[in-house]
Amino acid sequence: MSELQELLADNLVFNHIPFPIIIMDENGQTVWCSRHAERVFQIESDSVKGQINPYMNPEKAALYKCSWEKMINSKDPIRLEDVEVRLGNGTLTYTTVVTKVFKSEKEKFILTIFEMDEAQQADSPARELESLRDGLDESFMMLYFDEEFLITYANPHFLKLSRWTPKRILGKPIWQMFGDTEEDHQLIEELMETLKKGEVWNGEAKKVKKDGDFYWVDLTAIPMILTGAETYYIFLEKDITEAKETQRHLEQIAFIDSVTGLENRHRLEQVVNEFIEERKHFSFVFFDIDHFYTLRDVSNSDTEKELLIEFTKRLRMYFSDSLITRTGLHEFALVTPLSHWFIEGFLAYLQQHPIYIQGTAIPLTVSGAVTRYPEDQQTFVHLMKASNATIKKIKERGGSAISALTADDHERLNRKALIERRLIHALDKKNLEVLYQPQINLKTGDVEGVEALVRWQDTEAGIVSPDELIPIAEENGMIHEIGKFVIETVCRQLKDWGSRDIPMNVSINSSIREFRDKDMARLFMEHLTINGCDANRLTIEITEKFALEAEAEHSIVRQMKQLHQKGISFSLDDFGTGYASFRYMLLLPISSLKIDKDIIQSITQQEKMQKLINGMIQFGKSLDLQVVAEGVETKEQLELLRVMDCDSIQGYITGHPMTANELETWMKNA
Q1: Residue 52 gets which letter from DSSP?
Q2: Is the dihedral of CA 349, 353, 357, 359 positive or negative?
Q3: Nearest CA-CA partner of 145 in 123, 177, 122, 187
Q4: At 294, which helix (H) or strand (E)?
Q5: Where is the PAC domain (predicted)?
Q6: 316 pLDDT higher than 90
């Protein structure tokens, strides 16, 4: 078989391109034609080999204002318009032909693609593609994504298995269908980067159903990059959950990690539960290798494996009398009777016994959590949760530390679990409350607007402030329900005030997670329309972290601009505590900024702080932004801000958060 024949055999994809294709040698003689060409021109590939191509050859080339020499020597594709061709039924038609030169065994060949119009073919490309899609639709779970990886189509197979409804899934971003672990994020990023490069991605993926259950699919993701059309992506999925469950069951039986030889998470859970039943005291130690993905990126799969094996050796040497398990890609857990001071010494041991890969020392450190049974936690699940909370805190501080669960940590974890449990009940019964804190114009003394603040007083959890509630809600996904409750409540209140001729502007807080929902802008406008509210009365407050992340996500910026065009304003909250960026201040439709209360609290303490705050005020004004100071509590703070020409203030000195009725009474008496 010649090199060209091998090339054609290996590229059967030519037969799936929905246009006729003919390959010629440099003399214009036919070498090969696709099945589409055979069907359209009613020819047979074997019988026309060696014949001069009647549609495109050295003599014909000149007719199309292009010499054969130019065709055969061009490095770039050549496009020829209005080429006359005769179809199999004898009729003449005109079409566009694209030619591209390639070499095989040092010989030149010309690939010609005839872009036949759909109406010219009984078996048109569109019909073939439609049949292909119908076949795929019946055989696979199928999803379409637009260029920004927002879902535009989900077929019945997918909806049935995942239990999502079109209303809940269409327009949502890709991450909604996957888990929220670091590994999940890595997979999504790898998948998206592959597709953006125009390459097909194939592999196994763990996905999330509407009710939170996981399922596994064999996923093939295909980029559709069409000339003159928007790029989109097709996901074809086969359910392999049963096979994965069988595999997991076999792994549970084996209890052994194939890479390190350590026992796995299933064995860990079994041993911990046995110790708990026997009421044995022990320390549950959780290690997470710092910057593992960075270490992995500078190595290959073989060195990654060697790194894990060498790290395992050091664990075995140092914790010789302990149960050591591998619980994740870069996570290890131990059950040990050893004391805390000895466990902390493992960091020094790693420094004294560095890991060398191909003669290079790998700068490996770990973040470690030590949780005691029964003093700290009493179940395997809570031991794992406590460990994850401690690890997260250590990593936020830079990693390379081993910490025990403190009494404060223990109290916070119990408090967090209580709030999560009670919040579900509160949202169901609508037990949350919205309070309003006034913002006062420093020049006129008038109430310029109010900020809507969600408050919750629970029979078990007590008073839960926004600072405590919002981070928990963002973490467990309930922030969407809270946001919806606040929008509904505020719009109803604006309607009530409007009916009684009480002019009031209200600002509400929103998170990046809420705006990742493509329907967020529609939700705002729906409630404003239902209640007959003026959009100019509403301001959405976002943090600097929100603004920084929104800058990189076109769908969020688009929604913000849509709302801004309708009249809704945006305010940059907690200014001075995050990552201020001139870029996002220009890119996003921000009309005001609020200087953070912690900064305002320091205004009377240092002269430098006064200069800083004055600079922030003047900076805002230079961009024609309204400047609001939060957390103003004393007359001295107020007077300094007045001298600095701050526009408005918000804080206890002028008014605490109040119910709507209390606010109206306060305004009458002010």
Answers
A1: B
A2: positive
A3: 177
A4: helix 292-297
A5: 201-252
A6: yes
What CA–CA distance (Å, rounded) separates 520 from 526?
10
Largest alpha-carbon pair distance within the chain? 100
Residue 348 has pLDDT above 90, yes or no: yes
Q: For residue range 424-449, what is the model confidence (pLDDT) as tens digits?
A: 888 877 888 999 999 999 999 999 99
Model confidence at 44: pLDDT above 60? yes
- Give 76-126 pLDDT, tens digit per residue: 888 887 777 877 777 777 788 888 888 877 788 888 888 775 444 444 454
Query: Helices 660-669 and 479-499, interaxial angle, to 10°?
Result: 40
E-strand ranges in 459-524 read 462-464, 506-509
Long-range contacts (CB closer than 8 Å, 24 or more residues apart) made by 544-547:
544/572, 544/574, 544/575, 544/577, 544/578, 544/579, 544/580, 544/581, 545/512, 545/578, 545/579, 546/510, 546/511, 546/512, 546/515, 547/572, 547/581, 547/584, 547/585, 547/588, 547/590
Look at residue 13 and tell me whether its pLDDT is greater than 70: no
Burial classification of residue 332, based on how many CB atoms lie within 10 Å of its CB (0-12 exposed, 13-18 middle, 19 or more buried): buried
Q: Determine contact, residues 569/594, Cβ cutoff 8 Å.
A: no
In this prediction, residue 3 carries a pLDDT of 57
